[in-house]
Design a protein that fits this description.
Layout: H1 12-17, E1 20-26, E2 29-36, E3 43-47, H2 54-57, H3 59-62, H4 65-74, E4 76-81, H5 101-114, E5 120-125, H6 127-138, E6 143-149, H7 158-174, H8 178-188, H9 191-194, H10 203-214, H11 217-228, H12 234-237, E7 243-249, H13 255-264, E8 270-275, H14 294-312
Parallel strand pairs: 3-4, 3-5, 5-6, 6-7, 7-8
Antiparallel strand pairs: 1-2, 2-4
């Protein structure tokens, strides 16, 4: 995949749209898993945020050629898509039991078993970060390291619980439209990326807006319902000994959770990176310095991931 100098040349569009799709049967229903890269390389398992799949959540990585090349030079990526969040998914029947967060974590273990994977690296965004953290607390021997973007770790506050209950009701009756869509976009993107009266909405937000139109409201309802009933992981965090790298935007509504999580993890194995001018840094379109280009910013993120992989190995 690379020449003798170690450089890597990769057709990003081929990789992003050419991954191998697998339908994995788990103890709590089937999941779609997309595999990118050489399966002989160390495994990186990803899990997206509410209402997203790997294409909408991690496209910032794969549409930046330098970042994609570096990432796939170091890992084989296993993208887990929450049930019913894959492209073209039909609405899940109301007869199918709604999973708990423990069920979602157990599904991750089933995916690892399906691919005969041992210990893996994990990359999750917000709700997906919570699922992977819970997975790490339940299956500690199967996680080499956690890379978490705007993670959740505490039970929802009363205000978050009530806010999510309103969203759940709107999702149930109206799907991912109107107020629900705008609330989700605020969850994902900073104001600068979403645009305002003076600055236009970025292309990545427009693309995400279109993808949300295609999402089945009932399927998103199931994932958000599980996350809104999550338990506090604080005590379990103290027992984790895998290395953990946390990224959080300074404007993220989940900033307090990320900082709280950092204080509860063993400081020998944990690092926090706060990113300026960013929200959940979902698209990875951010800069650690304001003069940094988008490509440089995305690559710097992946460089940290790859260095992190070298540390845990």
């Amino acid at each position: 995949m690379g020449d003798s100098s170690g450089s890597v040349s990769i057709d990003v569009e081929r990789i992003f749209f050419g991954g191998k799709e697998h339908r994995v049967r788990t103890r709590h229903g089937p999941l779609s898993v997309s595999v990118y890269g050489d399966e002989d390389k160390p495994a990186l398992v990803t899990y997206p945020d509410v209402a997203l799949n790997h294409m909408s959540c991690f496209q910032g990585l794969f549409f930046c050629p330098e970042a994609a090349s570096l990432l796939l030079h170091n890992f084989c990526v296993y993208h887990i898509t929450p049930q019913g969040h894959e492209l073209g998914a039909a609405s899940i029947s109301s007869d199918v039991p709604v999973p708990s967060v423990d069920d979602l974590a157990d599904q991750v273990a089933d995916v690892l078993d399906f691919f005969s994977l041992g210990a893996v690296m994990c990359l999750g965004v917000t709700a997906g970060a919570y699922v992977l953290t819970l997975f790490a607390t339940k299956y500690r021997e199967r996680v080499l390291g956690l890379m978490l973007v705007s993670p959740l770790c505490k039970a929802p506050s009363w205000s978050e619980w009530l806010y999510n209950k309103v969203l759940l009701n709107l999702l149930y009756y109206y799907g991912t439209r109107g107020l629900v869509k705008e609330s989700l976009l605020q969850r994902y993107f900073s104001m600068e990326v979403r645009g305002n009266g003076q600055d236009p909405e970025s292309e990545i937000v427009q693309a995400c807006r279109s993808l949300l139109d295609e999402r089945q409201g009932a399927n998103v309802w199931r994932f958000l319902h599980a996350i809104n009933r999550r338990q506090d992981l604080t005590e379990s965090l103290m027992k984790l000994q895998c290395r953990t790298l946390i990224f959080v935007g300074e404007n993220s509504q989940f900033h307090a959770d990320a900082v709280h999580m950092t204080t509860k993890l063993d400081r020998r194995y944990c690092a926090l990176v706060e990113v300026i001018y960013s929200s959940t840094i979902l698209t990875l379109q951010f800069g650690l310095y304001t003069e940094e280009s988008e490509a440089d910013a995305e690559e710097s993120f992946v460089v940290k991931l790859c260095r992190f992989r070298l540390v845990v190995h």
